[in-house]
Amino acid sequence: MPDVMLPPVSDAYTQVEEAVVHVVLWLKLGAEAVGASIIVLGILAGGYLFVKALLARRTADFTAIRLTLARYLALALEFQLGADILSTTIAPSWEQIGKLGAIAVIRTALNFFLSREMKDEHRAAAEHHVQRQARNEDAPPVSESEA
Fold first, then answer.
1. What is the maximum span of the chain, computed from C-alpha positions, in angstroms?
2. pTM for the model
3. Which residue, 62, 63, 66, is CA-closest to 43?
4. Residue 74 near residue 112, CB atoms below 8 Å
5. Residue 91 pLDDT grade (very low, low, confident, very high; cuts 50, 70, 90)
6. How would DSSP label each residue in 70-114?
7. 3-state DSSP call for residue 2?
8. Could you write out the DSSP letters of every residue in 32-58?
9. How many Å is the Cα radius of gyration of the chain?
């Protein structure tokens, strides 16, 4: 039986570790790129709605525009958080862990306030709808001669 020279375990381990680090770095870059793309899409969508509302002189639509942009930003923040989690999987420093914690707190707060604003907006829209229906029911019936 011929002697087969196997590389030392430390060399194989080092090679696998370097490969994993490279894959994780590429995944992190991809997640950051997706997050940045979502922000760009949100800016374009919000900008379009903003210009449309300005041209139609509907300033009441600004809240909806802001919430649209906020939804995109919240989603992008999720991808950025994913990228930061990936970067902390490779020998994290205390600075990286602190950054990850800060981003998680910001994301949670943003989602909390966004959800609350969306609920308030839905409630206000429902109240407006009920008030409009009540006004229509209170109006005197139109006679056939007036119609």
1. 112
2. 0.68
3. 66
4. no
5. confident
6. HHHHHHHHHHHHHHHHHHHTSS--HHHHHHHHHHHHHHHHHHHHH
7. coil
8. HHHHHHHHHHHHHHHHHHHHHHHHHT-
9. 27
